[in-house]
Amino acid sequence: MYVKVLSDNKARRGLKPDEGFSCLVDGKILFDTGEASTSLVENMDRMMVPTSELEGVVLSSERWDHTGGLWEILKRKKGLKVCVGPSFSEKFKKCVEELGGELIVVEEPIEISENIFVTGEIKGREKGEDIFEQALVIKGDKGLSVIAGCSRPGIMNVLSYARDKMGADDMYMVFGGFHLDGMNRDEINTVISDMKALGVKKAGPTHCSGEKARRMFSGQYHDDFVPIKAGHIIHL
Ligand SMILES: [Fe+2]
Fold it and tell me: How far is the CA of 148 from the centre of ligand 1 (A)?
């Protein structure tokens, strides 16, 4: 099992950086679609990712930085499965169907492709409001791994939910947005300790994780810190 990072705020030479996040699992399942369709499809072309081989798209949330490239992808490949959560707006769901996408509203965890699971929405609170987000879980040769979109419900909330639903004792790798920008050192240290206590062997905070958190994860995970950027290929 492998994952290609297609959109991120950092990018390898020759690829476009993007405010959003997107990655491709096993050449067929797209997790999130970045902010801009131009950077997503350009990076896909440069990384020689053919749209024709896509089978489905999983969206962590309806937010602009995770759904921007969806519409261009749907125009290029008809009949794609598009996994959303119940909290997505009716307008959004209608647009997916109008562009020929096969809308799947994920109520409970599902296996969208062999050993690739969608958690369904995980609930959190932000600024006094309920927020919802789903993550992707991969059962690879090295164990269970989780890809997070923004982690606005809290990265440990996301990981605990994924572990409980999948019945895993530990995790090989966690990467994606950890939503730690703006947190102080003590708060970030708590997250790192909790993640280690949960048995997470490798960590790749990126997207909205913030530079401070990336440096702290790098300092405490040492060789098991994975410096993610667009163009990165991760083997799980
Ligand atoms: Fe985000």
Answer: 9
Domain 2-235, second-level architecture? 4-Layer Sandwich (3.60)
Q: What is the pLDDT of residues 43-102, one digit of tens each?
A: 999 999 999 999 999 999 999 999 999 999 999 999 999 999 999 999 999 999 999 999
Ligand 1 geometric centre to CA of 179 (Å): 8
What's the pLDDT tens digit per position in 176-195? 999 999 899 999 999 999 99
* Distance from residue 212's CA to the centre of ligand 1 (Å): 17
Instruction: Give the model's confidence band at 107: pLDDT under 50 very low, under 70 low, under 90 confident, else very high.
Output: very high
* Ligand 1 centre distance from Cα of residue 186 (Å): 23
CA of 21 to the centre of ligand 1 (A): 7
Per domain, the residue ranges of the chain are: 2-235
What three-state secondary structure class fits 174? strand
Residue 126, Ramachandran bin (φ over 0: left; ψ between -120 and 50: alpha; else beta): beta
* Nearest CA among 211, 112, 147 for reference residue 7: 147
